Amino acid sequence: MKRGDVDHPSATAAEEASSAKRQCTSGLSLAVVMEQSADHKTKKYDRQLRLWGDHGQAALEKARVCLIGATATGTEILKNLVLPGLGSFCIVDSETVKMGDLGSNFFVTAQDIGGFRAEAATRLLLEMNSDVKGQYMTDTLESLVANRPSFFQHFTIVIAADVPSEKLLLDLGRILWPVGIPLVACRAYGLVGWIRIVCREHFVTESKPDNFIQDLRLDTPFPELVALKDSVDFGAMTKKAHSHVPFVIILLAFLEKWKTLRGSLPTTYQDKVKFREFVDEGRLKNDDGIPLAEENFEEACKAVVKTVGVSKVPDEIERLFRDPACDNLTIFSPKFWIVIRAIRDFTVGAEGAGHLPVSGALPDMFSDTESFVHLQNVYKAKADSDAAAVYAKVCQLNRDLGLSEDFISLSEVKYYSRNAAFLRCVRTTSLEEELGEGSSVAAGLTGFSVDDPDFRNSLWYVMLRAVSHFHNQTGVLPGLEHKTYEEDAVQLKVFAQKFMKAVGVVDGFRELAGDEVVARYAREVARFGGEQVHSVAAFVGGTVGQEVIKLITGQYVPLNNTLVYDATACTTSTFQF
Amino acid sequence: MAFDPQTAHSIATAKVFMVGAGGIGCELLKNLLLTGFRDIQLIDLDTIEVSNLNRQFLFRSEHVGKPKAEIAAQSGLELCPEAKITFYHESVIQAKFNVKFFSQFDLVLNALDNAAARSHVNRMCLAADRPLIESGSSGYLGNCKAIFKGKTECFDCQPPAPQKTFPGCTIRNTPSEPIHCIVWAKHLFNQLFGEADPDQDVSPNTADPSLLVDGQNGTGHHNGAPHQNGSSPTGIASTVAISTREQAVSCGYNAITLFEKLFRDDIAYLLSMEKLWEKRRKPVVLDVQAILREPQAILQEPQPLDSDRSNGDGGSTAGDHEDKRVWGIGENARVFIRSVRGLKASLEKLGNLVWDKDDEVAMDFVTAVANLRSSCFGIATLSRYDIKQMAGNIIAAVASTNAIVAGFIICNAVQVLRGNQSGCYNIITRMFRDAVPATAPKRRIRTTGVSRLDVPRPGCVSCSERVEIGIKLRIASITVKEFEEKVVKGYLKMSAPDVELDDASGKIIISSDDAGEGKNRDKPLAFFGIQDGTRLKCEDSLLDDYEVTVTLHNDDHLAEDTLFLPLDAHVEGELAQPTVEPFEQAKGIKRKLEEEILTPGMSGNKRVALLASNSDAASEPNGNGNGLSEDVIDMSHRF
Ligand SMILES: [Zn+2]
């Protein structure tokens, strides 16, 4: 497979893999029947469109996901992607359906016993949503990795569910890492869940942070904003007009007065409190000198601490500006870095004068419609002209790099420019770094106390690694046979201890994870006997579903990089390995 | 084996009642069956809608219109033919689902989407002494907790986030925000095509307190009396009280006539109440002929607002589909005319209509009416998409969150069956968020907040042994109807209340037999001789032994928009915060997380209880870790 094929893979993937793969009939016929009307889709997807928007949905509908392992975990994940309208999926699974699958996997039936698990799962998953296309392959992961590594390059994302072999995962990781395709590995093992995200470089365009402070440029207003503020004369207003001036204008006007009186803007918290009082005194008074209740002034006072003196480039964006990828653009640079570079040039240059492009968004505020629309138009016009300035720089960069000038469209640049404060780049460690020689794991296993749920979850992680080593050595999962349960538990404990030694866990961790503790965990894990508990698979399926949607849509920051779930205590912990 | 044989046996023989077969319900039924539950009864009132299909995976497009309960049961049996699944396609709030009915179950599981039913099932479980697991989801947030009578906090122990309501005068006379016009539009729909509710009058209100002398609070606006239409300046309205419905019938639902009444005559009438406009911007009347003649002619049409105003979770980029475009005034007028005609035809064919956000014509009508009214009052007009969200109280929902929540329900359910109450938790889940500051790259973040179940709140109207409460209200003006709807049903959460004087007379004030049809419902409490200090006995006829004694305290100085105030309740500034229903519970989540820690192993005898206060989460004010309440606040801004 040539590198260039990656962009149009769904068709080629089907052709190339025809030897081992059957096109699932229901998916095909439904696809032929016709796409449902856009209106129908809007209705069907209404509740999620309100969460991730049309552009998020469009990204989801374009995405191609490869699922390795049609286990309970794997099919639960796909369920959560097929329902909202994923573009297409391909299941890789060489197993046949066994009795044990019926007890935990919703996407196989008794009639499927003996048949390929991938076939049953594909058929039943496609029944849920006729917008989605699906296919499957019954090759083993081992043979695909060894013989047809290019197969995996067709996908937007690859998910490996319940792959017991670390070596296989590592090989898969080595295929995907260089081409930049994210890998999500996960497992539901007894009462424990594990999720690992591997992405070399993932670009977030809408990080939607928890605490977002909107930069309204109050302390450094641009000329158009100054002009608008100057056009408002508080002294020459009716009572009604006075109580409808948007709070942004109020703050701008009072900041100017404050500066004239004091020589500088309020920056410290104490100053801001005083400034707030200063604004509050600006309310109109009745004939008895009692201030009127003016809602817009109340809003202005409330907004002081959060909106005054915050006009600076956020740290996260400063870090992007300093990133070598931003400096060293090449013809292979992703669009993201070219735009970041243009935004940086804008920000440090004359146009931005130290500020990111204006987003154009305004918070809701108390005002009459006319004033609000005026204000909004001023911000929007500035946002448009800033975006245009960034676009000019993008075009120049493209030319300099030898790319076509319209490699990045104006509407794309506008989108980035509007979201400039919310751009993020996430890089996780590779699987090589975690599973390979000289592992980075020990650094992630620090800073616990004994009664810390994170410590318990870190021990589950250690045990899952031990299970892999056990499987690697013996070819079976610990505790599978009831009669060898005790032996297996002892052996598992030894694997766990070997693992901790090999990765060189810190002394503190070794002390907490004493012989008795590890033995207890090993017995518990051996008792699982490799069984899949459906409710754990449901949890992992839901969480991986969310993470995959984040990776596909560029909305929210994905997990970096490991999550462990303990279904007994209902706790989760995240680790960076 | 993940479950020991004894646990597996309890699961296989447990009899469970599942209330709700929607988003969480579908996941839950699947999880129950695949965990080994074999005796399930489920109930759901709803039928399947297209907008359910993005997550309620037991249903397909061919099932649209069919009962959720039936199809879910059918799908469940396909998955697990040996299971016994009984379904009810009806409301759980009924006398037939009495305490005896609830008593037959080992466990009750709530997967509901509305507070009234949740609260009712909570009450029934308390009365039948059956454990209940309560759950909910909203967007990327979800929660789940177990409730044990008398031992842990019940559903009603945490006061619900108050519903956002608007004073009638704002709706009828002086709207200032789009939502006021949307509420008005929905009321108008009911007045014209549905079951008319006197509380939802849409005509100008002459009893507006703003019409009184400044600083003097009138109480008259609470009496809900139909407005005397007086003589409007245009001379069109008659001098007798005539309802909007009667006017519509008398003109044969002529859309132009209705337009002129609503957006010209009634507005002109409002303008004649000059007092209202002393401190407010005056509305303008619309001339329907002019609007229709010149499609682009704009009277006072605000410019379309960018739909992308917020940066919160709901902030999508400018939508590319039709629904997100803001209509011009001519378009609103035309849609109004078209939808009135359509609804008139449906009314004639089907009888009284019920407003439904998913009914195209009904939604068109509300969009057009809300926007036309906004145009009169100089309020921003909105797209159909945004109006639908506000009018329909739409809460975003995705499969993944429901899957996570349903996974947690099973965790709690298994612990309940094992008799391990301390192994049950109050669990909140949220998506992993951007929360790794560069300075602390190894910080650990949890996507679930787990806390021990709280003890019952003393004085909780639902789970306290003996309930005596005090309420402040205006005895002279609050009507029996208002008292029943807002206090007895709303606050005390009674489904079918009987209320009588707690004295020798035992005079009946409200009877469940009347089903809201009693004669004197529009009379104020004072009419029955009720005065400051009177005690009322309130009973729910659907529950045995459930009685609350309410002492009434007269207070004529309550805030203008406050109908009543519980004596023990403290009123916060956020009273008017919009509701995020499934997360009502989350607001009460303690920052201090006390965790019961189990040593690994499901066999209960090895349990070691360690109480750890999670200082990491507790000290973190910015919503990392388990600081979920931040998210809840975030969310509330979106609605
Ligand atoms: Zn309670």
How would you characterize the overall build of this protein?
The complex is a heterodimer of chains A (577) and B (639). Chain A is α/β, with parallel strands linked by helices and 577 residues long. Chain A has helices at residues 9-16, 25-33, 38-44, 46-62, 72-82, 99-104, 117-127, 141-147, 166-179, 223-230, 239-242, 247-262, 269-280, 295-307, 315-322, 324-327, 335-348, 369-401, 410-418, 431-435, 441-444, 453-474, 485-503, 507-512, 515-528, 534-553, and strands at residues 64-68, 88-92, 133-137, 157-161, 183-189, 192-198, 202-204, 424-426, 562-566, 571-575. Chain A folds into 4 domains: 3-13 and 41-205 and 535-575, Rossmann fold (3-Layer(aba) Sandwich); 223-307, no CATH class; 315-426, no CATH class; 431-530, no CATH class. In chain A, the strands form 2 sheets. In chain A, strands 3-2-1-4-5-6-9-10 form an 8-stranded mixed β-sheet, sandwiched between helices. A two-stranded antiparallel ribbon of chain A has the order 7-8. Mean pLDDT of chain A is 89; it is low at 1-36. Chain B has 3 domains: 5-161 and 397-429 and 445-452, NAD(P)-binding Rossmann-like Domain (Rossmann fold, 3-Layer(aba) Sandwich); 168-391, Arc Repressor Mutant, subunit A (Orthogonal Bundle), CATH 1.10.10; 467-575, Ubiquitin-like 2 activating enzyme e1b. Chain:  B, domain 3 (Structural Genomics Hypothetical 15.5 Kd Protein In mrcA-pckA Intergenic Region, Chain A). Chain B is 31% helix and 12% strand. Chain B has helices at residues 5-13, 23-35, 68-79, 99-103, 115-128, 168-172, 178-193, 244-250, 255-272, 288-293, 329-350, 360-377, 384-391, 399-417, 480-491, 615-618, 629-636; strands at 15-19, 39-43, 84-88, 107-110, 132-138, 141-147, 425-429, 448-452, 467-473, 497-501, 508-510, 535-540, 547-554, 564-566, 594-595, 612-613. The radius of gyration of chain B is 27 Å and the shape is globular. Classes of the chains: A alpha/beta (577), B alpha/beta (639). Chains A and B meet through helix 3, helix 4, helix 5, helix 15 and helix 18 of A and helix 2, helix 14 and helix 17 of B. Zinc ion is lined by residues 154, 156-157, 456-457, 460, 462-463 of chain B. Chain A: One of its GO terms (biological process) is protein neddylation.
